[in-house]
Structures are given as C-alpha cells and as structure tokens.
Write a structure and sequence with these properties.
Elements (H helix, E strand, L loop, with lengths): L16 H6 L16 E6 L2 E6 L2 H4 L6 H6 L1 H5 L12 H10 L4 H11 L18 H32 L19 H15 L14 H12 L2 E2 L2 E2 H18 L3 H29 L11 H25 L1 H11 L8 H9 L2 H4 L3 H4 L23 E5 L14 E3 L13 E3 L7 E5 L12 H4 L6
Antiparallel strand pairs: 1-2, 3-4, 5-8, 6-7
C-alpha cells in the first residue's frame, strides 16, 4: 500500500536480480516487464544492431538512485583509491554534519520503513511519527533532492579531476591509445547536466520532470524569481553549465572549477525556497490552525526533506542558524516559527554565495502577492525582478546548447537523448517595490492541497 505514494521513477520496471543482490532497494522483487526483449534490434542513429541476451542475468542496471549515495564515500571523499580531488568540499560538509557517508540512502530507506535515521551526527529524523503520506513525501523528495543533488556535484567535480589529468590536446587519427584532454571531462560535465535536468523536463514551457531543474522552476513561480516560468536560478546555472563546458574543451580547468562552484551555490536556492515555503505553511501566518492532520503531515515532510538537503551547507556557515532551522522543520514538528526560520537562512546568504533577490519571498496562490512576513529579506527592501526585453522570453547564447544525456537507467533517462533547455534571458534589471502588507492574502484550500512537484 505504501508504494502507491511513490512516483514511477522510483519503481522503474526493469529491476534484475543482480541489481537486487548488489544494491539495497526500496522494492526487493524482480521486475522485467520494462526490460528489453530477449532478442531484437536497437537503432542508434542510422545504424541497426541485432542483439540477444539473458534478461535475468545480463541486465546490470549500472546506476541506481540508491547507488549515488552508497558509492559516494569512494567517489567523493576517500583520498586513497578514491578521486583525485577528494574530499570534495560539498560532500565533506554533508559528512561533517550527518557523520554518515550514506546519509541520503539512509534518509530514503528510513522513510520507506517508518524508522529513525541512524546518523551519528546531526539532523536525525524519526519517521515512525509519520503515516504513509509523510513517509512518501520524504522518500520522493529525498531521492531527488538528496541522492541526485549530490551526484550532480560529483559529476561536476569529476570533470575537474579529469581535466587536470595530463594528456594530449590532439590525437593522431591512427593512435587508438590516445585520449583527447577534453573527452572525459566534457563527458562527466554533460552527465552533470543530464542528472540536473532529467529526461522528462519540457523543452518549452519549463514544466514537467522530477529532478532539480523542474524543482527550481516550480519554486521560482512560488517565490517570484522567474521570467515567464523559467527560474532565474536555472538561467544562471545553465549559463555556468555552458561556460564550464567551453572551458573544459580548451582545458581551462580553473575556469571550469569556478563554474562548478557557482552551480553548487545556486543549487541551494530552490532547497531554501522549499524550506521557507513549507515553514510558512506550518506557521501561524499560514493555514496550520485550519489544515487537516494529513495536510500538516505532508507539509512537515516536505519542509523537513528540503531542510535536510541544505542543512549541512547552512551548518558549515553558521551552526546556530542550522540548529534553528532544524528545530523548526524536523520530522514531527508540526508548527514552525516562520520569521525565525527566515532570519536564520538570511544570516547565511553571504556565506552561501547567494542573495535575497535569488531567494525571493513566498507568494500567495496566484503568485501575485507576498504572504505575511514573507517578503524578500523584509518588506522595506526593493525587490529585484528580471524582465526579458520586449516582454517576451528569449534564448541566451549559453542556453541554446544541446545536452547529450548519458545512460541513466535509474531515473529513466535513455542514452543519446539530446535536450534543449529554453529560458527567459535576464536582460534588464529593475526595482519593483515589495507589495504592501494590505495586499497580502492567505493560502486557500486549493493551494494547500496542490500536487507537489513529485
């Protein structure tokens, strides 16, 4: 019964027995309905290839969402037999906070089983306090925003490691042992883009999908930080994706590293926006006194998971701020002090490398007015709003590049798919006064009952 609360991307229909033996899985039964047939033809480009294989023994399911977390210590932390740049600073901050190398998998697994997380450090959650609704939200958002989030960063950092390996910028056509310097780093960088975006995100309309790109657009609408549905965070992130790829192509490793660091900073913004949104829903300024118990549990689970995905970065900047957010947003805390959470986050923006304008505020149902106490860094501060020239969305140069997705079986991304990411270009900046408090509206039943992004 619990699994009806999970999205299809967590219950993909090709799970071989080899996968179940080698990876801890939410579902422990073998399913082959979604696998390739035992024999057939695959078309790659204009080439048709005949194949045959053993469905049960040769479906390796090379990547899983759980595997992103289970393999993170070796790929992102270990200096011996690990990565050249280990420990990666972003992952190290999460380990320092949770004292658990598999924190993301443990979060999802504990939510699925209704038990407490086994962290030796901070941020533990007791999911026995939740029913299926809250646990389902924690599983869904934990898989996307904790497991996948960190693996995007892993691929960015891996690209920098590959870039720093000594090799030849040019290869002779007849030299089969030569690898050009830009091959592996660009491939890793493209995989970061693929994991960030996902295969289901719309190429136009900025909608659809389950991963971080789609989350950023959703939160941009909720917080007033978008142009025609495209979040400013996504605009900035994809400009950095584009610039970083160009740097890697000419082996400018330092330049690409700066882009990777900036992307990592910006990826925190939707997580902060999500935490603030649900903190407001659970506060006296929202509908917490009138909402049903199921709805309050849902909001608590969503807010707690968003917070869990950003608390380590917050803790690295300001331990007191992190304690404040955790105290208000932890699992089982059904009422939050929104101004306290907001102030705690704002105290760390400079350290996190983001701004009040990046985060925005919390808007009402129709995304017209900021809600009580929820204007961007206080109602007295003018709100910076980006607008596109001529009132319409245009494509920036960096947003026009095609993204080659790698083979991402765990999230249903198929090898060779090329995605184009559309966005409104930030061409002009103007001051827009924060709405007057008299214009603020409360949440409606329709708003609190909306379907979440996943």
């Amino acid at each position: 019964e619990f699994y009806e609360y999970l999205p299809k991307f967590l219950l993909y229909n090709c799970r071989s027995i080899l996968l179940i033996r080698s990876q801890r899985s939410l579902v422990d039964n073998e399913v082959t309905d979604g696998c390739f047939a035992k024999t057939g033809k695959i078309t790659i480009g204009k080439t048709k290839l005949q194949y045959d294989y053993n469905v049960e023994e040769e479906n390796l399911n090379g990547r899983t969402i759980a595997g992103f977390s289970l393999g993170a210590k070796k790929k992102m932390y270990d200096t011996e037999h690990g990565c050249a740049g280990c420990p990666y600073p972003e992952y190290a901050a999460f380990y320092d906070y949770y004292q658990d190398f598999e924190y993301a998998d443990d979060w999802v697994k504990s939510a699925a089983s209704g038990s407490a997380t086994p962290f030796s450090g901070n941020g533990n959650a007791d999911f026995s306090k939740f029913g299926f609704i809250g646990r389902g939200e924690a599983v869904k958002k934990g898989a996307a925003y904790m497991n996948t989030f960190m693996y995007v960063i892993r691929e960015l950092r891996d690209a920098i490691d590959d870039c720093n390996v000594a090799c030849s910028l040019e290869c002779n056509a007849d030299d089969t042992t030569c690898t050009q310097c830009n091959d592996e780093p660009v491939a890793a960088w493209d995989e970061a883009v693929a994991f960030y975006t996902g295969s289901l995100a719309e190429t136009e309309g900025h909608d659809g999908g389950y991963l971080l790109y789609s989350l950023a657009n959703k939160r941009g609408l909720n917080c007033g930080t978008h142009t025609d549905g495209q979040s400013w965070v996504n605009t900035d992130i994809f400009e950095n994706f584009h610039q970083g790829k160009k740097h890697l192509e000419v082996r400018n490793c330092k330049g690409a590293e700066k882009n990777a660091e900036r992307i990592s900073q910006l990826m925190n913004v939707p997580l902060i926006q999500g935490t603030l949104r649900y903190a407001h829903k659970l506060s006296e300024h929202g509908n917490v006194e009138r909402d049903s118990a199921d709805l309050i549990e849902k909001h608590n689970a969503e807010g707690a998971t968003f917070a869990a995905a950003v608390l380590p970065a917050l803790h690295k900047c300001n331990e007191k701020a992190a304690k404040t957010v955790y105290k208000n947003m932890k699992v089982g805390k059904l009422k939050a002090n929104y101004p306290e959470v907001k102030q705690a986050f704002e105290s760390t923006y400079d350290c996190l490398g983001i701004s009040c304008a990046d985060v925005g505020g919390v808007l009402n149902d129709s995304s017209q007015f900021f809600l009580p106490e929820a204007t961007p860094c206080g109602s007295q501060q003018p709100f910076k709003q980006y607008t596109s020239a001529g009132g319409g969305g245009t494509l920036s140069a960096g947003a026009k590049f095609g993204i080659a997705f790698g083979s991402l079986a765990a999230v249903g991304i198929i090898a060779g798919v090329v995605a184009k990411r559309m966005n409104g270009r930030k061409e002009e900046v103007k001051d827009v006064p924060a709405p007057a408090e008299s214009a603020v509206e409360s949440y409606t039943a329709e708003d609190t009952g909306e379907k979440s992004i996943i």
